[in-house]
Amino acid sequence: MATSTGRSLVSHDTQKRLQRIAVYLTALLISVFTIIPVYVMVVIAIQSPATTFAGGRVNLLPTQPSLRNFLVLLGSTDTVRYFVNSLVVTLGSTVLSTTIAVAAGYGLTRFDFTGKSLAARAVLFSYMFSPIVLAIPLYVVFSTLGLLNSHFALTLALTAISAPFCIWLMWQYFQTVPIALEESAWVRGASRWRTVRDVVLPVARPGYISAAIFAFAVAWNDFTMARVVMSRDEMYTITVGASLFLDRVSIGWGETMAVSLLISIPPFLIALFLQRYLLQGFSVGGLE
Amino acid sequence: MSTALKSRLAAAGSALRERDVDGTTLLLAACFVPMLAFFVVVWVIPIVYALGMSLFASPVRNPEFVGLGNYAELLGNGAFWGFLWNSVVYAVATTGLSLVIGLGLALVINQRIRGGDALRTLMIFPYLLPTLVVIFMWKFILDPNIGILNQFLVDAGLIDKPIAFFSTLEFAMPAVVVTSVWKFASFAFFILLARLQAIDPDLYERARVEGATTWQAFRDITFPHLRGAILIILLVRGIWMFNKFDIIYLSTRGGPLQQTTTLPIRVYQLAFSEVNFGMATALAGVMFFLLAGVAVVYFRAFAPEKEVA
Amino acid sequence: MMNGNHSRGGDGRKTRGSSRRTFLAAVGSAAAVTTAGCLGGGGGGGSNEPIRYLSDRGDSKDVMDEIIAEFEEETDHTVEMIYTAKGTSSDAEMQKMVAAGNPPDLLFDTSTDAYRLQRDGVLAPVTGAVQDNDLPDPVSVGGESYFAAAMVEPLMGWYRNDVYSEMPASWSEWVEAAGEVSANESMEGYVIQSGQTNNADTQMTQYLWQNDVEIYGGPSDGIEVRLDNDDNRQAAVETFEWVQSMAEHSPNGSGWAWGDAIGALQQENAAAIASVGGLPILTIQANRPDLVENLSPMPFPVPSGAAQDRWWAYMEGHLVRNDGQNTEGAQAFVDFFTSSSRFFDFVLSAPLFQFPPTREQLDAPEVAENEVIQQHPDVMNLVRDNWDAFTSVLATGDDGAPNIVAADAYSEQLFGQAADQLLVGGLTPDETVDWLAEELRGLQ
């Protein structure tokens, strides 16, 4: 146990230390890479452009925080209306998508039928589909039906993108919910519907919260569908509305970052308070 | 899923049907009608409709049946292969880099380092941030004049003149790739982290006792557990990136000189800038069949439907 | 290629009557029946379809909302605004609406696009509004006017008066002075822009004009490209040589948009740029107020001995499509707008950038009283002194006849691309002239 192990112990220690350094260095690099853009956004949003650009350099140490950019947004743009539109379609498609997914997930695990794997493949196939490839025919169909520029059409379109994954998620989730719970409820004479309401839904809660989060994220993030379905100014969602801001003479980077910060609030809250549901979703595959 | 559970479920299913006393049929309908109606309305009708349109010249305003003419014109045009190539380059570069970063970070966090939880929370953020916001951030950072990257590079003496990353031929694609990787690296990270944390710690302990090096432990324990996830990420993330529209449209609109024009961008241009719905739907059709091809490979190789059915 | 196919696509659209949307209708109607019951509610109300108005003037939104409110009060029409991003995307948005069989009634666009659309046969006249208000009449065909100008936006240069002790004027002075700035200061002397962008295209065209290159000639129905003929080739080559030597004292401006050049001036990366009107000063006022007093407007550099006789100016205004749901309403709105007392509020919502469309209106009290304009008398002087030289690229046929080749070249930004061929692609000035002439002929 003497010298030879002693030598290897030293080298082992060094190796360990190097490894430790490498680990922290990687963590640091990736953190910096992730944080810098967010930091830049926040700083530029909360200081006036004159402060940001003073002296011909971009000043990123906030010395004079100001609400100026937010006031300009409120005063000379339709930011509020765009946000309302975004909320309407996001909540609409979140509810629709989650409802469809819960129903389908329950049905697909509780009823036996042939062609189940075909159904699974169909869900997976649509889950991989390109939103823009779907957007073109949806646009033509909606325009034929006179449904362009309606919250209803955009809600449907957004649900089209989020539902496949939500169904997949609930399908998997319901498999982990033991049928024994339902069986014992039946034995005690509960009806099919009561069992669903009082036993199945409460147990499935973590599943559908995580499906709802994904549906929410898809809709809130969406640019493609809103760009294609909505053409009237008063129907724009915040992403489409804000994408036009920089083209104006009267709007600069300050206001652009301010609106970006506002758009980031819901994702921020999710990351902070609902991350375990999100991680659960990732264990099934995550989303586009 | 275990066979035991499966047969249990099937039994329960038939139990449900036999006890059709209080509205099981209705429940059956409530479960499947929304999904089926939904699939027909937003998937089947539009897709069939689009495939139909792709057989017409000027299908909206002045329809004229041309059969596979649009497809022939599309595939016969050299530009198509350029756009396909751009899509492949973009998909491979973004997926590859995301995987490297995601794997690196997952391995790091799995070491239970200090601040690991905070870092994990931080990584959720880019993934949830709307693409538009991500684009604003990176457009600002990479801007030729006000951008802090150029400011830094010029100060450091690495370049003489600021570079307009998003609008210069050689930098446009890398700029779009970096922007995309920033947003999507977390995807690989979270999936891989979940797999890593599912590995039994005893395996490592046993390896350590047997005197295995870190590398050997990675090669013989970690990697085999991750291999399936890595392949899935490469495949699914690759497909999504191949199909990505918004991030490229918002950053470069496919320019400069179509350097970043991928197939999804081209579909949009054909439909809405050149108003050629025949060609646009034909290209969408080509993408549809490409995806179908990849899906067949995916189903054959992984049988993902086994997870549920 | 990216934006280029409207013109060719347009030919097909001439046969308006025959375009029945049969295929679409066949599939659509079946689905329509099922949903019509619950969604058709809004249709029955008004006697008129709303006037669908497509505009890229987000800056003037508040004023326009007020004008529309007045218009809706006085007539039984309603107006539905659709805003798009500036530039080509507004054209794209229109094409998208047309493709869906749902074209807008009213557009805010350039005279150049107005002429392209008139040629495609999709415009209705707005003759009354033009004649009653003595507006310029750039798109006049068969006695009818198809474009009601609302504003003029001239190009304009800006330079640092503290860096250049005296404004360089001639080409040779500029090469020398910009070279000194680049060598001695921490910034470049000038910005040469190239690439497939509107700003590079307008500027490159202007440089050719500065050396009296007659790019085109002939009447509207027989426009020919004269860029490379005996009279012009030498002058065109000289121009590209000058651009090449100025580019040595410039940041790499390939692919830069308007905002990038303004950013260069704002961040003191360059001491002079070309832009549209007072756009730079409006931006820099917000971001670098300390820099404003160091900036002065200027005309384009000009070869010694040559006169400043053509000065690129966009003309933007209203045009009415004849295939929308409420053509008459749109025409009524153009009349109303043009004679509205708020006309000047609209134009002056981006002062120094947008100017009124006639020389008389330029001296109107509303203009003189505008605060921002009062702060920059030098800009107004430059505009007044050069008013007669203001030229739309559309009016470059013989005697200012509308020039469809120029309109198409602008929409493909061929001159900006030529500058890229020269500065990035490594063509010689001679080869660049050949490249450009060939591309232009391809449009004829």
Automatic annotation (TrEMBL), chain A:
Family annotation (InterPro entries): BP-dep_ABC_trans_perm, MetI-like, MetI-like_sf
UniProt-listed Pfam families: BPD_transp_1
Gene Ontology annotations of biological process type: transmembrane transport
Name the record gives this protein: Sugar ABC transporter permease
GO cellular component: plasma membrane
Membrane topology: Multi-pass membrane protein
Compartments, as annotated in UniProt: Cell membrane
The entry's keywords: Cell membrane, Membrane, Transmembrane, Transmembrane helix, Transport
Predominant location: membrane
UniProt organism field: Haloferax prahovense (strain DSM 18310 / JCM 13924 / TL6)
Family to which this protein belongs: Belongs to the binding-protein-dependent transport system permease family.
Limits of the ABC transmembrane type-1 domain: 83-274
Keyword field contains Transmembrane helix: yes
Spans through the membrane: 21-46, 82-106, 118-140, 152-171, 199-220, 251-274
TrEMBL record, chain B:
Keyword Flavoprotein: no
Keyword terms, alphabetized: Cell membrane, Membrane, Transmembrane, Transmembrane helix, Transport
Cross-referenced CDD domains: TM_PBP2
InterPro entries: MetI-like, MetI-like_sf, UgpAE/MalFG_permease
Gene Ontology, cellular component aspect: plasma membrane
Family matches, as Gene3D superfamilies: MetI-like
Membrane topology note: Multi-pass membrane protein
Domain of life: Archaea
Domain ABC transmembrane type-1 intervals: 84-298
Subcellular location(s) per record: Cell membrane
One Pfam assignment: BPD_transp_1
Family: Belongs to the binding-protein-dependent transport system permease family.
Stated name of the protein: Sugar ABC transporter permease
From TrEMBL, chain C:
The keyword Membrane is assigned to this record: yes
Keyword Lyase among UniProt keywords: no
Name of a matching Pfam family: SBP_bac_1
Cited InterPro entries: Bact_solute-bd_prot1 (IPR050490), SBP (IPR006059)
Source organism superkingdom: Archaea
Regions of compositional bias (Gly residues) in chain numbering: 38-47
Region (Disordered): 38-57
Keywords: Cell membrane, Lipoprotein, Membrane, Palmitate, Signal
PANTHER family: ARABINOSE-BINDING PROTEIN-RELATED, POLYGALACTURONAN_RHAMNOGALACTURONAN-BINDING PROTEIN YTCQ
UniProt protein name: Sugar ABC transporter substrate-binding protein
Organism field: Haloferax prahovense (strain DSM 18310 / JCM 13924 / TL6)
Taxonomic lineage from the root: Archaea, Methanobacteriati, Methanobacteriota, Stenosarchaea group, Halobacteria
